[in-house]
Design goal:
Length: 246
């Protein structure tokens, strides 16, 4: 016959509760352990969150280290390591993390460029609708003029995308390397996003760029004078883009 006697509290909640049981061989002191109150014991959910945080921190540190090493190889003088892993370095750096020394040796543009874009859309009846030319560079210029703190995007994003395109393509619009394909896609996406932002949700599936290069006007030139003739008027082919608008 088993009979519960009395309950003894240890006075410290984390230790648990002790019960005294009566048996044939005499009283037996047993201890009930409280899982939630035991020191060193934590719920499964808390341990999972802590493990996730440690994993996220480790991934951030590894990514930061890899980024610093690849950027260092990009800006460092040519060496056996940078030559051997040039494709990996360029794939990581271009086009978002490009680095150069122009902060210390600036090379301002000696030309004014108008980067124009127009779009085309084929409706359900099969007719093609082409929009008028839209000056992308003029939008950037208006955001920079009379602005004491112009954004890097307005100053350099479109301009650097075009100069990088010319560096990899030359006078041809055929991409002959992986980097040329990447920069062509980069320029195309920038133009499509810029047009879509000012297009009032007008649908388009194709985009075409036209770049007009003008020499910098001489000092003292007034608005009434005839503008100098363009030194280059380059028309790029139509590019297929992800459908924009409705």
């Amino acid at each position: 016959m088993r009979r519960t006697g009395w309950v003894v509290s240890s006075g410290v909640e984390s230790v648990g509760v002790k019960e005294l049981h009566q048996s044939d061989s005499g009283p037996v002191l047993q201890e009930r352990r409280d899982e939630a109150a035991m020191p060193g014991k934590r719920p499964m959910r808390i341990r999972a969150v802590e493990a996730g945080l440690r994993t996220a921190v480790a991934l951030c540190l590894v990514t930061t280290l890899v980024h610093v090493v690849l950027v260092f190889l990009h800006v460092a003088p040519s060496n056996p390591v940078s030559k051997r892993y040039s494709s990996q370095v360029n794939g990581w750096v271009y086009p978002l993390f490009e680095q150069n020394w122009r902060l210390f040796a600036p090379d301002p543009d000696s030309f004014n460029r108008k980067i124009l874009a127009r779009t085309a859309h084929t409706d359900s009846k099969g007719s093609v609708q082409v929009t008028p030319w839209f000056d992308l560079a003029a939008v950037d210029h208006s955001a920079v003029d009379h602005n004491a703190f112009p954004s890097h995007t307005s100053q350099n994003l479109l301009r650097r995308a075009w100069t990088s395109y010319v560096e990899t393509h030359g006078g041809s619009d055929t991409a002959r390397s992986e980097r040329a394909v990447m920069l062509q896609t980069y320029l195309r996406n920038i133009a499509a996003d810029r047009v879509a932002a000012h297009n009032d949700d007008r649908a388009f599936d194709f985009i075409q760029l036209r770049v007009v290069t003008l020499p910098v006007a001489a000092p003292g030139t007034t608005a009434g004078d005839h503008p100098p003739p363009p030194t280059e008027d380059r028309l790029l082919p139509w590019w297929k883009v992800t459908s924009h608008g409705k």
